[in-house]
Amino acid sequence: MRSFISAAIAATCAYFAMAGDAQAETALQMQYRHSYVVPKGVMLHDGPVMQWGLTLDIAKPCYGGAWWSTSLDEWEINSDRGDELNYFLGCTGPVGPLAIDAGFVYLDFIGLADFGGIDTAFVFADVGVPFKALDGALTLAPYVRAEYRHTVEKTEPSSNGYYLFGGLKTKYRLSGTVLGLVNRTALLYDSGTFGALDEGLLGNVFVGADLHVRDWLTFNAANAFVTFPVSDLDDAREPEVSAGTGMTILF
């Protein structure tokens, strides 16, 4: 399995890199959220968290980076709960009319007591068909996404499994302003990846407002993520909401 994953990533990066340029760009993202909720409908931390992400274009269109989430205790970093460090590598770019993003992520769960701190790795592929409307101000992209997850340590019940997403991504830039609106709506099929969770369908909705104040600076003024069961689930999952604010800096 590991050799297959490595070969798939290498082939994807090589394919995209043939058309890429060597100019590198670094993106630093900082986000405050009032809770940490993930697409599969689980709240990993029911208190405030700070989340940082660092992405480097290795050789466009391939990228790599790291992402860190940690809980807050009265605005001080508290690593007693909700710590997660992710490492990722991928490639993204157009292939004809398609927009493709594919790669590998390693999730290092430092202090998630509910899940035993078991590290997980997964491969993903995201394929969209973007098109523009309203004189280019609106971008719509129907998309599908697949993720296969594999626990690094053998556990019982097993958390190996996959997620399938299908939905629509939209971006709207208000003419003559720095304000942009984003939305991502999807239906998620969970194969029962964490053995304690049921197989079933969940809805995911993300909405946000961005202020593009400079070419290198965007304020993610406000956003909210909502997840909710669509099919009948016998586990503890229920509708969850996470709101946040932050910024993105390009170097």
Structural class: mainly beta
Spatial strand order of the main sheet: 1-4-5-7-8-9-11-12-13-14-15-16
- The percentage helix is under 10%
First CA to last CA: what distance? 36 Å
Provide structural commentary:
The chain has 251 residues and is mainly beta. The chain has one domain: monomeric porin ompg (Porin). 6% of the residues lie in helices and 60% in strands. It is built from 1 helix and 16 strands. Strands 1-4-5-7-8-9-11-12-13-14-15-16 form a 12-stranded antiparallel barrel. Strands 2-3 form a two-stranded antiparallel ribbon. The model is unreliable at 1-23 and 112-116 (pLDDT under 50).
Task: Reconstruct the topology from this structure.
Blueprint: H1 2-17, E1 26-33, E2 36-37, E3 43-45, E4 49-59, E5 62-73, E6 76-78, E7 84-95, E8 98-109, E9 120-128, E10 131-133, E11 138-151, E12 161-173, E13 179-190, E14 200-212, E15 217-229, E16 240-250
Antiparallel strand pairs: 1-4, 1-16, 2-3, 4-5, 5-6, 5-7, 7-8, 8-9, 9-11, 10-11, 11-12, 12-13, 13-14, 14-15, 15-16
